[in-house]
Structures are given as C-alpha cells and as structure tokens.
Design a protein that fits this description.
single chain; about 325 residues; alpha/beta; Rossmann fold; L-2-Hydroxyisocaproate Dehydrogenase, Chain A, domain 2; 2 domains; six-stranded parallel β-sheet; about 40% helix; binds NADPH dihydro-nicotinamide-adenine-dinucleotide phosphate
Length: about 325
C-alpha cells in the first residue's frame, strides 16, 4: 500500500482551515488515489476547536484519510511533513502599525520555518496563505537554510482565479476559454493582474477590452475583491481562498502549463533575487518554473515595479526588525 502523504495545516481551526481540510481529506489536493494524514497546528486556545473539526473529519469517513494529529507544537506538526499549508497568521487589527504586524508574524513564521527546516520530509513543499503572505513566506524560508528555497511559496492563485472570473464575465466567455492569465508581485492591493499575455480565443485579452476598463475597473476589482466579499458576506473569503490553496498545491505536484504563484525570484523580469513575488509559472516534474521571454510593455512595467518595490520595503522592514 502507498505511504500516506503528511499534510500540515496551520490555523486549522480558522475559517479557511474549515473550508480546506475536508477537501484535502477527500483527495482533491493530491489526487483521488493518494492517501493522506493530516496534522492540525493551532495556538493552544484554539486546539479544542481544531479537535471539533477533527471529529467532523472522522465523521466523513473519507477512505483516503489515514490519520489526524492535533497539536500546538510546530516541531510535532511539521515532523515528517510533505506538504505544509501555512494559513494561521496574525491579522492586521485596526490601528496596528505595519512594524507590529510584521513583528507578530515574524514570531509565527520564523519558528515554523525552523521547525520545517529541522523536521520536515526531504520533499517538503510549503504554501503560505496567511497574510502578509509573501513576506511571511520569506521569513519562513530564511529560517530554513537546509531546505531548498524554491520549496517556499506564497499564494496568489486566488487573485489569479478572481482575474479569470472577472475577465470571463466581461467577455461573455467561459473561464476555460481563457489562457495565460498572470498575477505579478505582492498579494496585496499593489498586485498586477496582466491581460497583455492573456489569450481568449487565440487573441490577446488586453486588445479585446477598453483600456479604461482594464485600468479603472478590472485591476482594482481584482485587487479589492477581498474587501467586497467582506462587505457582502459579513465575513472574509474563506472557501475561495481554500480553493485557491488546493489549486496551487495540486498544480505544483501534478503539473500545469501556466498559472500564477509567488515563488523565490531568480532575478527574472527585474525582480530582485530572493524576493518571493508572483510570476507567470509552469510546473514540470514537481517544480515551479518562471515562464521566460515575455515582453513587458510600459504600462505593465510600471505596475510590476510598484508591487515589487512594496515587497522590497517589506523585506527591508523585517530585516530591520531582525526577523530575517
Ligand atoms: P482565516 O482562516 O479566515 O484566515 C487566515 C489567514 O489567511 C489570514 O492571515 C488571512 O489574511 C489569510 N488570507 C489570505 N488570503 C485570504 C483571503 N482571500 N481571504 C481571507 N483570508 C485570507 O482566519 P481565522 O481568523 O478564521 O483563522 C485563523 C486561525 O489561525 C485561528 O484559528 C488562529 O488560532 C490560528 N492561528 C494559528 C497559528 C499557529 O498555528 N501557530 C498562528 C496564528 C493564528 P487577512 O487577515 O489579511 O485576511
């Protein structure tokens, strides 16, 4: 029998965790023939709630779910883990300074990175969902010197999926008719959803929409979609965030010709080496590759540079705080 893959979810008792765990256990993360064990990491005060979720997981009687572990110790949670979904983070509270936010998250993602370094399986893959995701991923990566840096990624797949859905609605086409969507930069309001390489019916999407729609409607709608959902639902997007996390890891493991993911920059497209920034990527042989050779027009250049500048500022801030 196949050895189960160990998947660790942090912040497992939270909203995204609740939307995520059942899909992992049902086989949607890795495949319908891949058995899994789940490790649920929580802060001590949320362990009981995680136990409740685990009871529900038991009650689903998922044939692929071979075990559930619940802990507040990262050294246990990441022991032998193959896939780590880092969802738990310190949210920005009203009146919180950026330095305080980064410091609080440094206290979470530094020790988790070290625990991954010391205890995870050799094929560990890490996806950071908890915000500020790119910089949290950088902090974790910097605390894991023995793990190849490319194994640390952050999620921009929800932004990517939101962009697909907005464009499909605008052009009256199916999402499946859209190819080569790209999100560049930081998972934040500065992210840049790029339609200049996106193809619909074999033609460039940017040429099928007004420039004013692209600039004044599309880009801000994608970037501010999270706030629009909070406004409508009275709660933040959890199911779609969980769905995007599933998509990201599924494609990383099983391959894709084109999607968006925040990965460690090798200097491509002028993004400073080492920053964890979103790129157009393919996945081949279980590894992300940045899609090369795209021409970047002036409109896109300006926006990519602005988002990358923000990532550099976040990196410099966590450096100054001694978090990396
Ligand atoms: P959620 O499950 O809704 O969100 C978790 C994180 O995901 C937040 O940082 C959130 O950022 C981020 N996120 C990224 N993309 C999205 C998106 N599109 N929509 C919404 N959120 C997004 O938060 P909860 O408060 O329900 O749960 C968090 C859990 O994490 C709690 O149970 C807490 O105890 C736990 N936790 C665990 C830690 C650990 O395991 N060591 C450490 C810290 C917390 P944003 O806030 O910007 O929306």
């Amino acid at each position: 029998a196949q050895t189960p893959v160990k998947v660790t979810v942090t912040g497992a008792a939270g909203q995204i965790g609740y939307a995520l765990l059942f899909r992992i256990a049902s086989g949607q993360l890795l495949g319908a023939d891949v058995p899994v064990t789940l490790s649920l990491l929580e802060v001590p005060q949320a362990v009981k709630a995680a136990e409740g979720t685990a009871m529900e997981l038991d009650d689903c009687a998922f044939p692929l779910l071979r075990g559930i572990e619940i802990t507040d110790d990262p050294n246990v949670a990441f022991n032998g883990t193959n896939v780590a979904l880092l969802v738990g983070a310190m949210p920005r509270k009203a009146g919180m300074e950026r330095g305080d936010l980064l410091e609080a998250n440094g206290g979470i993602f530094g020790p988790q990175g070290k625990a991954i370094n010391d205890h995870a399986a050799d094929d560990i893959r890490v996806l950071v969902v908890g915000n500020p995701a790119n910089t949290n991923a950088l902090i974790a990566q910097q605390h894991a010197p023995d793990v190849p840096a490319e194994r640390f990624t952050a999620m921009t797949r929800l932004d990517h999926n939101r962009a697909l859905s907005q464009l499909a609605a605008k052009l009256g086409v199916a999402v499946a008719d859209i190819k080569k969507m790209t999100i560049w930069g930081n998972h934040s309001a500065t992210q840049y959803p790029d339609l200049f390489h996106t193809e619909v019916g074999g033609k460039i999407a940017a040429e099928q929409v007004d420039e004013s729609w692209l600039r004044d409607t599309f880009i801000p709608t994608v970037a501010k979609r999270g706030a629009a959902i909070i406004d409508a639902r009275g709660a933040s997007s959890a199911a779609s965030a969980a769905n995007a996390a599933i998509d990201h890891v599924h494609d990383w493991v099983n391959g894709t010709e084109w999607t968006s993911a925040a990965i460690v920059s090798d200097g491509s497209y002028g993004v400073p080496e080492g920053l964890i920034s979103s790129f157009p990527v393919a996945s081949r042989g279980g590894r992300w590759e940045i899609i090369q050779g795209l021409e970047i027009d002036a409109f896109s250049r300006e926006r990519i540079d602005a988002s990358v500048r923000e990532l550099e500022e976040e990196r410099d801030a966590v450096r100054k705080l001694g978090l990396i």
